[in-house]
Amino acid sequence: MPAAIDVRGLNYSFGEGELRKQVLYDVSLTVQAGSVVIMMGPSGCGKTTLLTLVGGLRTVQEGQVEVLGHDLDTAGPAELVAVRRHIGFVFQLHNLLDFLTAQQNVEMSLQLHPEIDPPMRRHKAREILKVVGLGDRMNYYPAALSGGQRQRVSIARALVAQPQLILADEPTAALDSTSGRQVVELLQRLAKEQGAAVLMVTHDNRILDLADRIVHMEDGRVLDAG
Amino acid sequence: MFFRDIPLAWLQLTHSKAKFFAAVTGVVVAVLLMWMQLGFLDALYRSATSVTNHLTGDLVLISPHTKEFARPESFPRRLLGRALGHPDVVAVHPFYEATGKWQNPWNGEKRPILVFGMPPDEPLFDAKGLAEGWSKTNVADAGLFDVVCRPSLGNVGKHFNAGETVTAEINNRRVTVVGTVRIGVGFQADGNFVTTDANFLRLFPDRQANAIDVGVIELRPGADRLAVQMALRQAYGRELKVQTPQELIAAEYKFLQDNAPIGFVFTMGVVVGCFIGFAIVYQVLFTDISSHLPQYATLKAMGYSDGYLVRTVLQAALILAFCGYIPGTILAAGLYEIGKRATMLPMDLSFVRGTQVFGLSLAMCILSGLVAVRRLRSADPAEIF
Predict the structure, then answer these.
(1) Mean pLDDT score of chain A, rounded to an integer?
(2) What SS3 class is residue B127?
(3) Whole domain around residue B18: which residue ranges?
(4) Closest CB from B6, B297, B304 relative to A107
(5) Cys bridge to A197: A4, A12, B313, B327, which one at CB 3.0-4.6 A?
(6) Is the interface score ipTM higher than 0.95?
(7) Which residues of A touch B301 (CB under 8 A)?
(8) Mean pLDDT over residues B292-313, rounded?
(9) Considering only alpha carbons, which residue of chain A is nearest residue B294?
(10) B88: which residues sit within 8 A by CB, 6+ positions away?
(11) Is A53 part of a structural domain of the chain?
């Protein structure tokens, strides 16, 4: 089985000329399909930049990035958009659309897959909302949900299209410790069920036991890539 | 595809009912302004030619110095004889026209009225009521009153229909209304009074019988009007203009468009309406985009294209255009009715103007959408982590 993420010799800098500042130095990282990897490190160490490169949200400057069998270092903007449709994103803030109900927010993710017709789309959205424990909140707007519930909607949105890779950036940062742990447990369980790989950036020490592997980063370098 | 998808633009616009109502109200105001300005403009142009529209005859002779039918320059009556020399011309009728002062018999106020003097055997208008009343004008100081006039002249029609004898003064001379006609007023005068040439000359003592204002030519049935027109143009050279009534109307329109400031004034009104609508729609769309930048960036991260988001914003602009146009047009219909009664100007919701207003509102909304869309560039999915 090929790796979900395979990064080799990745360098990345922000800015131009004299202001140029390198943030990633010769980074190599492999995430096997179906495994949960947590990435830790101090603020500004480059972990979020690495996440955006793997997610196809930035253009690779130097090095190789292979995600779900696509070479992102050679991909054009259109291919990057196409690859992103097979990745589930979970953000620090839920970023749900406030004018859509929980169910409609989840459906937005499925609408990117034209092979799923509208009745199936609604069915799948309702099913996954039941799985994340929001079966009785499907027609609620985000404003009427608690922080933990919103983050569960955003996990449902990230997972409903059954992506093979989930990228999460501090998903517990805006939550209290109990609901934070519940949310990550849920994410980990569903990812395992679907066989999806998870790469998660976090500062939260209480959830480290949910990872198959922990990677530490510092000053733009991976300290212990496995 | 459109109906299958979640209607993002619609849901976003209507999520807050109060905000949606405010936005639509803005577009309604803009649409209403456009309707009113364009309506008044067209009504003024049309009313300016309402008298000309009722003129009978195949060809019309006027002085080359006459720019507006309601303010004619006189020319010598003997010139008419030249047209009679053409074998296809059956008759040439003289026609007098001048603006007099009508004194409202009920409140004594003096208002401008257009007086037409025509040969007693040949009324040169094709207007409702003329055929019935014309024979009664053949007595001194009698005439037909145009009831499609401004209220300032007094409610002559009501009193006349009630069987009363209505007398009033024109240029300080007592006249009797012996019948009513329906012609329509422009903005040079508040009403029309149709009478015989003899009565006309009594009302305007400084006018000479041999100085007429218009010559109306009647052709033999089956005559080639264009050929006669060409021949008469040759015959009159620069002395008189030979026009069909349609050409006369068109020339008058053109004169007004080029010379009267109303075109500019009302076009400015339309521009202001468009600008109000543009500003409101832009404000709504811009605020919606700005307050949803992280969410839009998230949609981009998930795999939605820039095109999808641009389409969503433009859809919202189109929805506002539609939702504002319909109530705006209904309100305009009501205001047209009120305007019609107050000014007696011909204001109608025409299909052409409806298309015009719709096109303008559409352009206004799309333009604001296109300007607001630039804000989307700030939605960078790489920045939301």
Answers:
(1) 90
(2) coil
(3) 8-47+261-383
(4) B6
(5) A4
(6) no
(7) 55, 57, 84, 89
(8) 91
(9) A95
(10) B219, B220, B223, B224, B227, B228
(11) yes
The mean of the pLDDT values for chain B is 90
Same domain, B93 and B35: no
Question: For chain A, what is the domain count?
Answer: 1
Residues B11-68: tens digit of each pLDDT: 999 998 998 999 999 999 999 999 998 888 888 777 778 888 888 889 999 999 988 8
For residues B97 and B212, membership in a common domain is answered with yes
Cα angle vertex A93, ends A90, A94, to 5°?
A: 60
> pLDDT tier at B124 (50, 70, 90 boundaries)?
confident
d(CA B294, CA B278): 26
Task: Look up residue A111 and give its two tokens.
Answer: 């609408």
Sheet with A221-222: list strands edge to edge: A87-90, A165-169, A197-201, A36-40, A213-218, A221-222
In a domain, B376, yes or no: yes
Closest by CA to B33, choosing from B247, B280, B313, is B280
| Percent share of chain B, pLDDT over 70 | 99
Alpha-carbon separation of residue B185 from B43, B44, B161, B194 (angstroms)? 10, 9, 21, 13
Among B38, B42, B62, B39, smallest CA distance to B52 is for B62
What CA–CA distance (Å, rounded) separates A219 from A95? 29
* Residue numbers of the domain that contains A129: 34-58+76-222
The answer to whether residue B27 sits within a structural domain is yes
User: Is B173 contained in some domain?
Assistant: yes
User: Is residue B1's pLDDT more than 60?
Assistant: no
Co-location of B17 and B102 in the same domain: no
pLDDT digits 0-9 by tens, A17-57: 888 899 999 999 999 988 999 999 888 888 889 999 999 99
Kindly determine whether residue A84 and residue B302, on different chains, have CB atoms separated by under 8 Å: yes
In a domain, B204, yes or no: yes
Pair (B33, B165) in one structural domain: no
CA-based nearest distance B299→chain A, Å: 8
Comparing alpha-carbon positions, the chain A residue that sits nearest to B293 is: A95
Domain finish residue from B243, B275, B309: B243
Residue B298 sits in the same domain as residue B356: yes
Same domain, yes or no, for B96 and B233? yes
Q: Is there a single domain that holds both residue B89 and residue B200?
A: yes
Partner residues linked to B214 by β-bridges: B62, B95
Buried-state track B254-289, b at ≥16 Cβ within 10 A, e below 16: eebeeeeebeeebeebbeebbebbbebbbebbbebb
CATH number of the domain at A171, please.
3.40.50.300
